[in-house]
Amino acid sequence: MAIKDIMMVVHPGPDGANLDEYTLSLAGQSGAHVTAIGYATQIIAPVSFAGDYPYDLMVQAVEEARAEAESGYERLKAAAPANVPTEFRMLEGLSGEVQNAIGRAARNFDVSIMRQASPEEPDFSNQMLVSVLFSSGRPALVVPYIHRGPAKFDRAMVTWDGGMTAARAIAGALPLLAQAKQVEVVSVAVEDEDGDALPAFDITHHLARHGINAELKQLTPAQTIASTLLSHASDTSADFMVMGCYGHSRLREFVLGGTTRTILESMTIPILMAH
Q: What is the pLDDT of residues 98-131, one digit of tens each?
């Protein structure tokens, strides 16, 4: 199934134009519609807050966020080629409510495109990503904040451990893998596993039946699984990575697993993820 319906979370900062270019490039290649999602969060003062409640400041912050999101969409719309239709939707509410709303909205699209949070940015972007991954049942395509240029899918690196999340990621990535000129399925050897057992064997047959000729490679971890995967992606000049997203439930929230979190923090190429 081709990608025809894309959700993009607007990034209002100066680097947002880079995310726009990537999104519009993918949409142009796929013949897809782009829905840009802007958001404005309402902040509630803590119980310990003393003094007059700053209603005016709260209202002003929401209005500024709304204006930035609308400006971000106008930038996207102005850059969109004639064959890429776009539209804008605004979500507002308390911080947690907005994140949950974005996750629910993502259910209505083939894929959500989001920008990786830079080290200087608050954790809100990563919380939105967690909501999309754990609440939507759809894949997310995360673009590094350092990324420049259009979307490229010539060289694909697929991570595979035989698990359910990896299978979902591959299913979501099939339209992109079909475009690739080179697909490599990699698994990382674990000490207590049989070195001759390649868990990706069956999945390469599955890909072949979709017309995707994938090469299989087993990696020996140099340090951590995350660093091994990132180093291999760099060594092979992969254009994008496909991986399952792992996380843990902590009461009513989900938190990303260690390998997933490390890769998201250190990624240098776009990654299609699914949970």
A: 999 999 999 999 999 999 988 877 566 678 888 8
Task: Output the CATH code of domain 5-143.
Answer: 3.40.50.620
According to CATH, the topology of domain 155-274 is Rossmann fold (3.40.50)
Q: pTM here?
A: 0.89
**Sheet with 271-274, edge to edge strand ranges:** 86-94, 33-42, 5-9, 111-115, 140-143, 271-274, 240-244, 155-159, 182-188, 214-219
| Domain range summary for the chain, segments of one domain joined by + | 5-143, 155-274
Question: Cα dist. 56→43, 63, 159, 201, 230 in Å?
Answer: 12, 11, 49, 61, 46
Instruction: Decide if 209 contacts 174 (C-beta within 8 A).
Output: no
Q: Closest Cα partner for 90 from 111, 115, 116, 63? A: 63
